[in-house]
Write a structure and sequence with these properties.
The structure holds two protein chains of two kinds. Chain A has a single domain, classed as Thiamin diphosphate (ThDP)-binding fold, Pyr/PP domains (Rossmann fold, 3-Layer(aba) Sandwich). In chain A, 45% of the residues lie in helices and 10% in strands. A five-stranded parallel β-sheet of chain A has the order 1-2-3-7-6, sandwiched between helices. Chain A has a two-stranded antiparallel ribbon with strand order 4-5. Chain B is an alpha/beta fold. Chain B has two domains: 183 residues, Rossmann fold; 129 residues, Rossmann fold, CATH 3.40.50. In chain B, helix 10 packs across helix 11. The termini of chain B are far apart. Classes of the chains: A alpha/beta, B alpha/beta. Chains A and B meet through helix 6 and helix 7 of A and helix 3, helix 4 and helix 5 of B. Chain A: InterPro entries: Alpha-ketoacid_DH_E1_comp, DH_E1, THDP-binding. Chain A: GO terms for molecular function: branched-chain 2-oxo acid dehydrogenase activity. Chain A: Its cofactor is thiamine diphosphate.
Chain lengths: 327, 327
């Protein structure tokens, strides 16, 4: 890691750690709110913060476009969504910039942040990101689009159609598969029969690589290079970041019906957030003092956001008919 | 004034809008060098180049999905599906994504895409080159569906569709392409989406229809006039959302209503028109609502006698008009 570290300053490494921690603690709070009956649903980022935050750090905020999928708490926070906004969507309140409380939690979209709106049918966002890249190319903008999905979703037709289109037209799009080993209850061996999801890149004639999704520097390096290629007109990249889904699929799932506690505990040993913290501490970049400062700052932010979102009003019934068509 | 066929009017609409607005572009299968399999985009590739007249890989979900993504940037894509029969792989993109983009993002994002597709029978196209699939999309708020009945309407409605801030499905009758010709003003023609058009006035019975059936109805109505019955003929132009007011007024005017579609009868556009009339015009009707449509068999067969038996025609319209008039 020390060699790779040279591409990132200590400040950047600490910022990455901060956002990973922010995503984790936000997610943990949402589970508490769910289990205490405050919010009906949670779909989690836990175990994927490293790949989400690190990939987003390789993008240009306010320039590049993102099409995040439903677990991407780390992506949306890094790209500029505030904690308050995140909790407003969890509570489905009117002020939520993602959908004004219309969509379930985890369905992100924020135009001011160049973040495309997403839906529940998986992988539909891949052609959208490709279309965004087509527009960027047509308008000769020095920007890329970045889209994420799960490994199960890489079986959808839209994955294939999108990547093939992007390749044929050399479009500046980065497709990152967040391989967390599970499509709800089905393990990777029930989803694909190739060694790596990134092997599929060969069929599209594009760059493909698999990185350790628990290693933020590796993910950052891969996405940064993909961005450079995209800006140089070298077309799309398929990056597979391998991690593990530490929580059940959602707050409505019981993962112990299809996997063991031992397996989850073993994965926790490799948790990117924990390992990154240990590495930064070992290198003297992260001190105990800094860490406790982050923790208390994050706790204050989440407390404030929770209270605000809890007390914020729902959308008025009269707004049900708004936004069907342009008005 | 210039005499123009229906397909020439479509071609003119795209040319005019592409000259007017750099953000308008066309994508689809064979739309570039070939100018479209029906030649709807003839000359566009030569005038606007391959960057704005894009030959896509053969993958309908990507044609629509990439168009959606580009439209979210602010482009005004015209996505051509070669035959409406092949639109089904893109239904998820149209219904889950395009139709709901504005609503689900609480007016943050929008999707100003036009999706063009040839539909309709009578051209020896058999089951998969003859269908009318508008009813599939006609219960999806967020979408608009226009189906022109004449060259002038083809021009004015396509230009309006391209300028519309919301997704518009533009279904063009492939038999009308070269069958219908008329004088069209050389000045700009724009026709408002959402408004029906009274094609012919009469007091004895009301015929409400759309697409190529308007032409059959015009001719049949002329013939019926020689029998002493005058037809009020309404062209829906926009089949979704329906112009309820125009439908109600036309039904009340004569008290006898014949609804015509080339589509299968059950669950069709005219089923909804019939429901609107039933809800609003009970005491103004002097006869039950009549419907003339294709039989409820899966699709139009290839063999000429079977095709003729399936297809609505001028003769069938005339016979039905006479039956309703004499009721």
């Amino acid at each position: 890691m020390s060699e790779k570290n040279q591409i990132l300053t200590d400040r950047q490494l600490l910022d990455m750690f901060y956002y990973m921690l922010l995503a984790r603690r936000s997610d943990e709070r949402m589970w508490l709110l769910n289990r205490s009956g405050k919010i009906p649903f949670v779909v989690s980022c836990q175990g994927q913060e490293a790949m989400q935050v690190a990939s987003s750090f390789a993008l240009a905020k306010g320039v590049d476009y993102t099409a995040p999928y439903y677990r991407d708490v780390g992506v949306v926070l890094t790209m500029g969504m505030t904690v308050k906004e995140l909790f407003l969507q969890a509570f489905a309140k009117a002020e939520d910039p993602n959908s004004g409380g219309r969509q379930m939690p985890g369905h992100f979209g924020h135009r001011k942040l160049n973040m495309l709106s997403g839906s529940s049918p998986v992988t539909t966002q891949v052609p959208h990101a490709v279309g965004m890249a087509l527009a960027l190319k047509m308008k000769q903008q020095p920007a890329v689009s970045f889209v994420t999905l799960g490994e199960g979703s890489s079986n959808q037709g839209d994955f294939h159609e999108g990547l093939n289109f992007a390749s044929v037209h050399d479009l500046p799009v980065i497709v990152m598969v967040e391989n967390n080993q599970y499509a709800i209850s089905c393990g990777i061996e029930q989803q694909v029969n190739c060694a790596k999801i990134s092997d599929r890149a060969l069929g599209y004639g594009i760059h493909g690589e698999t990185v350790d999704g628990n290693d933020p520097v590796a993910v950052y390096t891969a996405v940064k290079a993909a961005r450079e290629r995209a800006l140089n007109g070298e077309g799309p990249s398929l990056i597979e970041a391998v991690g593990y889904r530490l929580t059940p699929h959602s707050s409505d799932d019981n993962d112990l019906t299809y996997r063991t506690k031992e397996e989850v505990n073993a994965a926790k040993e490799k948790d990117g957030l924990i390992i990154f913290r240990q590495q930064l501490k070992k290198q003297g970049i992260l001190t105990d003092e800094l860490e406790s400062g982050y923790e208390s700052k994050i706790k204050a932010l989440i407390d404030e956001a929770t209270t605000y979102a809890d007390e914020a009003p729902y959308a008025d019934e009269q707004t049900l008919f708004d936004g069907v068509y342009h008005q | 004034m210039t005499v123009m066929s229906y397909i020439e009017a479509i071609n003119r609409a795209m040319k005019e809008e592409m000259r007017r607005d750099d953000d308008v572009f066309l994508l689809g299968e064979d739309v570039g060098k070939r100018g479209g399999v029906f030649r709807a985009s003839e000359g566009l590739y030569e005038e606007f180049g391959e960057a704005r007249v894009i030959d896509t890989p053969l993958a309908e979900s990507a044609i629509v999905g990439v168009g959606i993504g580009a439209s979210m940037y602010g482009m005004k894509p015209i996505a051509e599906i070669q035959f409406v029969d092949f639109i089904l792989p893109a239904v998820n993109q149209i219904i889950s994504e395009a139709a709901k983009m504005r609503y689900r993002s609480n007016n943050d994002w929008s999707c100003p895409i036009t999706i063009r597709a040839p539909y309709g029978g009578g051209v020896h196209g058999a089951l998969y080159h003859s269908q009318s699939l508008e009813a599939l999309f006609a219960s999806q708020p967020g979408l608009k569906i226009v189906m022109p009945s004449s060259p002038k309407d083809a021009l004015g409605l396509l230009k309006a569709a391209i300028r519309d801030p919301d997704p518009v499905l533009y279904f063009e009758h492939k038999k009308a392409y070269r069958l219908l010709k008329e004088d069209i003003p050389d000045e700009e023609v724009l026709i408002e989406i959402g408004k029906a058009n009274t094609v012919r006035e009469g007091d004895d019975l009301t015929v409400i229809t759309y697409g190529l059936c308007v032409e059959f109805s015009k001719k049949a109505a002329e013939k019926l006039a020689t029998q002493g019955y005058e037809v009020e003929l309404v062209d829906l132009r926009t089949v979704y959302p329906l112009d309820e007011q125009a439908i109600i007024e036309a039904a009340k005017k004569t008290g006898k209503v014949l609804l015509i579609t080339e589509d299968n009868k059950e669950g069709s556009i005219i089923s909804e028109v019939s429901a609107i009339i039933a809800e609003h015009c009970l005491f103004d009707l002097d006869a039950p609502i009549f419907r003339l449509a294709a039989p409820n068999v899966p699709a139009m067969p290839y063999a000429p006698p079977l095709e003729k038996a399936f297809m609505v025609s001028e003769d069938k319209v005339y016979e039905k008009m006479l039956e309703v008039a004499q009721y």
